[in-house]
Amino acid sequence: MRADLDIVAGMIGEGKTALDLGCGDGALLEALIERQDCRGFGVERDLDRFLSCIDRGVPVTRGDLEEELALAETSSLDVAVLSLTLQATRHPERVLEEMSRVAARQIVSLPNFAHWKLRATIALRGRMPVSPILPYEWYDTPNIHLCTLADFEGLVAQVGLRIEDRVLLDSNGHKAPAFTTRARNLLAEGAVYSLTTG
């Protein structure tokens, strides 16, 4: 399981009901169900990843997460998760609003497009950066809404959510060193947020 998903699992806790949007191969859901006594299901569009979820035995629906999220019952879950996927959604603000409609807490992880290495790559090489947390070339990236941590935090306030917890990430998806908090928008390669309403 990716390192950032361990952080996400820690934020979710035990015995919760969870919806994993864009759940990939189902590794997070499997860990939540088997290790943390959670109940949950996922939504995945990619056929190969969907089949990996089936192989793991985790409940999953194949489809577009924005369409599937709209079908979920209001206040039916403890947690809705969106891991390294928000930047690939068509309407990030609507996705956050819908997540808050269906779940008491929302956990969102995302890459930081303002990290200094990315800025330097564009400034010095004039090329779109490729990194472990952003492994795609510009022509095959699923990312359609590039944002910084500051951009995301502004959107969180705009849609009426509150940041309950924030863990900054290094290039490998592990918790970043403490000094990163001094200039998180410049120094963190990504972050995991726990959000609530109010």
Q: Give the strand order of the largest sheet, numbering strands 1, 2, ... along the chain.
A: 3-2-1-4-5-7-6
Distance, first to last CA: 32 Å
Number of strands: 7
What share of the residues does DSSP label as strand, in percent?
A: 15-25%
Quaternary state, please? single chain
**H/E order of the elements?**
HEHEHEHEHEHHEHE
User: Overall mean pLDDT score?
Assistant: 94
Query: Poorly predicted ranges (pLDDT <50, ≥5 residues)?
Result: none
Described by the principal axes of the CA atoms, the overall outline is: globular
Please outline the major beta sheet. Answer: 7 strands, mixed
Question: Which descriptors would you attach to this protein?
Answer:
globular; 198 residues; alpha/beta
